[in-house]
Amino acid sequence: MKIIDAHMHLSHIQEFKATAAEKSFVDYSLDGILKEYRDNNVVLGIGMGLTETKPGGFPDEEAVTPMGLDLVEALPPQLVYCLGINPYRLGTQELEALERDLQKPEAVGLKIYLGYYPFYAYDSVYQPVYELAAAYRVPVVFHTGDTYSERGLLKYSHPLTIDEVAVTHRNVNFMMAHFGDPWVLDGAEVVYKNRNVFADLSGLMVGDTANCNRLKDSPLFFAHLRHAVTYCDHYDKLLFGTDWPLAPVEAYIRFVRELIPAEHHEDVFYRTALNVFPKIRPFLEHEGHALR
Ligand SMILES: [Zn+2]
């Protein structure tokens, strides 16, 4: 089965480097991810643009919009990315830069870091971003749920806060990263109710293979998630993602394979990403992968 990883990272972020070195034990480099992708038949990764101006700075008020994948000079054909938004840097100049970058084939979406930056999804600061998303037909990805930094503020990243944006901007598709975990039942309702809201299943656990297996096999750790996935009952709106380097690719695939009924694997691991991120299609054609 061919797989698209709809959520990964490849940026100089101190917290990611520390997690790779101390928890997930992945090789956090371009070679490292390409090897894991090759070994697991992952044909494309969608990186979430993110930068910090000083080590440990994220969420960084100084980072320039748009934020990219600054761990690599040039992206190989197996990687595309979403342009990261810093709401403190969204003046005329930054919006022009954003629009310029949206014209690059490899810029396939926009990423807003709810909870890391203290603004709600429906805040007026983000309105120009939604207008660009509509004009360039790219989705907006929201961080939702737990923040991987104790400086985050959870009220901004609750999945219910996506509902109003989804209603106001029906012409834009939104992807709720992490399904709003741990508020996944609320996340499921927002996905279920709004035709333009999708969710990725990335970042639901952090660590090496042994820890991922321990959590995956625990009777209760993912009980809330199983409940939410079943309640949502829209497997065509869920996307596989790893949040690499937070966990090894193979261990994460095994977890999602067990979570999602087999008849929906094709949607979750591959097909839904083509609908949410239409700009990725030429990358897959180029690689010789059949499209439906
Ligand atoms: Zn992430």
Automatic annotation (TrEMBL):
Single Gene Ontology MF annotation: carboxy-lyase activity
Positions of the Amidohydrolase-related domain: 70-278
Lyase in keyword set: yes
Matching InterPro entries: ACMSD, Amidohydro-rel, Metal_Hydrolase
Keywords of the record: Lyase
SUPFAM superfamilies: Metallo-dependent hydrolases
Gene3D superfamilies attached to this UniProt entry: Metal-dependent hydrolases
Source taxon at top rank: Bacteria
Protein name from the UniProt record: Amidohydrolase-related domain-containing protein
Biological source species: Paenibacillus dendritiformis C454
